[in-house]
Amino acid sequence: MTEELVHRVPSTSRAAAGTAAAARPLTIDEGGVWARGRRATAFGLILTITLVAFEALAVSVVLPIVAADLNGLPLYGWVMSAFFLGNLVGIVAAGRQIDALGPARPFVVGLILFAIGLTVGGLSPAMGVLVTARAVQGFGAGAIAPVAYVAIGRTFPESIRGQMFAYLSTAWVVPGLIGPALAGWVALHIGWRVVFLGLLPLIAVAGVLTVPALRRLPQTLQPPAPGATATEVGTETAGAPSLRSAVRLSLGAALVLGGLSPASLVLGLAPAGVARSLGGPTLALIGLPVILLGLSVAVPAFRSLTPPGTLSGASGLPAAVLIRGILTFSFFGPDTFVPLALQGIRHVDAAQAGLVLTSATLSWTAGSWIQAHRMPVGGERQFIRAGFAIVLVGVALTATVLSPAVPVWVAVPTWAITGLGMGLSYSPISLFVIRKAQPGAEGAATSGLTLADTLGTALGAGLAGAFVALAVSFGWEPWVGVAAAFAAGVAGAAFGLVYAGRLRGDREERE
User: Fold this and answer.
1) Cβ–Cβ < 8 Å for 75, 127
2) What are the residues whose beta carbons fall under 8 Å from the beta carbon of 93, sequence distance 6 or more?
3) Lower CB count within 10 Å: N or C terminus of the chain?
4) What mean pLDDT comes out for the span 108-120?
5) Closest by CA position to 252, among listed 109, 75, 462
6) Nearest in space to 500 (alpha carbons), one of 333, 382, 325
7) Which class is domain 1-237?
């Protein structure tokens, strides 16, 4: 999970941060991360990322309890998809505003939106309200992460920047170790609403610590050109993604998911009598024009935000961008429904189900460490293919837990296998893209990678939710839809394993 946050930072902001740090003389002594002049910034950023990480992991664990309490199983997948579709827009919006106005304002807006999403989510009377709250949360979280990395670039000397990144990595590892089980215990013994509302005081603390330090940073990297508007400042950086295109991509993806799962919208939002009168086949027919409309909006936007040839199957860098989306689709679709499989179908309590997610977090970290120390230069493809193969096996084995004949504890090692595959393959895709990008076009390549990453996560969770909603609309048991969600993950991993052949390493090119 740590790697995911790192690579969702807009490349324009990262490049800008490095430029600012190099151009600006240091005014703070080299006393380390916790030197007096940067102590509040470091602690505030770490606390903020920890809160975002804890919330992301906690929601996955308590979502089955929430769905049962709010009678919202058909909208289960939308709770996750809405977050990541909002996240996609928030990342792009914050990246542009940071370069134009400095990091303080986007950070404050991000914290406020994140807090509003938590508040509305914790007080939600219905699942549809929670979905809306999660979209707001996602936008806020998308604005927070880029600020953290820009602040590091502008505040910390290069000699200790790596230490600060290590602390931010820990900000994901610690919630990954204790967050799921703790959230499950809180949901069981106190109430699931506390999982949302309990973070609000800590968000206020993070803001008080961090905002004053961010305000002291220079607002812009260079004076705006004469006559330039605020929204135009910083857009000259290569690959700066268009906010309008990002909004269209998010809206189009939402329409596609709505068309794929009209049952979820009708069953989740309409009166029960209306849903029953329509029936599954009718709902499926209703979705077709919505899917076509969504594709007509999303496909042009995706093409404008990714390297040429990404959708047409071009080999090399475009293939790597598409593969990242396939990878997140294959993992996060089933990952969203692992807690439901354990709690709703195998009747394991939320605290125990959280241990399964923890096992994947640990193995993801282990896989990242292995590839970082064992991968030869230009050898990304072998790790990417190995990762896809392991994800395929892990998802398929975890799906067997749906059967009462399989001991439920099997989910711990099998989902850990899946996390290991993610750790082995996630970062190598990023390294491949950075290495293959043309000089001056790194921004476009890595921005496209970030968007494909986020979109794959949203579509994976949304499609898995569509399967569950359709199963409910046809009167089938929920496990049928969950099994289809796992099958989609297996299919995605198999496609990625084959499609990874379109990547070419340096050694293969020389041959």
Assistant:
1) yes
2) 106, 139, 142, 143, 243, 246
3) C
4) 92
5) 462
6) 382
7) mainly alpha
pLDDT: is 202 or 116 the higher one? 116
Exposure string for 18-34, b = 16+ CB within 10 A, e = fewer: bebbeeeeeeeeeeebe
Confidence class of residue 66 from pLDDT cuts 50, 70 and 90? very high
- Round to whole Å and give the CA distance between 255 and 435: 35
Break the chain into its structural domains and give their ranges.
Answer: 1-237, 253-305, 309-511
Q: Which residue has the higher pLDDT, 6 or 402?
A: 402
Per-residue CA distances from 420 to 386, 409, 427, 499 (Å)? 10, 18, 12, 20
Q: Residues 115-133: what's their mean pLDDT?
A: 93
**Which one-letter amino acid corresponds to residue 456?**
G
pLDDT at 221: 46
Query: What is the band of 388 on the pLDDT scale with cuts at 50, 70, 90?
Result: very high
Q: Dump pLDDT digits (tens) for 78-100.
A: 898 899 999 888 888 887 777 67
CATH superfamily to which 309-511 belongs:
MFS general substrate transporter like domains (1.20.1250.20)
The answer to whether the beta carbons of residues 64 and 339 sit under 8 Å apart is yes
Sign of CA dihedral 64, 65, 68, 70: negative
Q: Which DSSP state fits 126?
A: S
**Least confident piece of the model among 34-48, 62-76, 137-151, 235-249:** 235-249
Q: What is the H or E stretch that residue 284 is in?
A: helix 272-305
Q: How many CB atoms lie within 10 A of CB 361?
A: 25
Answer positive or negative: Cα dihedral of 465, 466, 467, 473: positive
Instruction: Write a three-state SS string for 131-165.
Output: HHHHHHHHHHHHHHHHHHHHHHHHHCCHHHHHHHH
Q: What is the DSSP letter of 218?
A: -
pLDDT band, very low/low/confident/very high, at 136 (cuts 50, 70, 90):
very high
Both tokens of residue 88?
């996609």
CA pair distance 448, 240, nearest whole angstrom = 10
Q: What does the alpha-carbon distance between residue 119 and residue 51 come to, in Å, rounded to a whole number?
A: 14
Which residue in the block uniquely carries the two structure tokens 């794929």?
A: 260
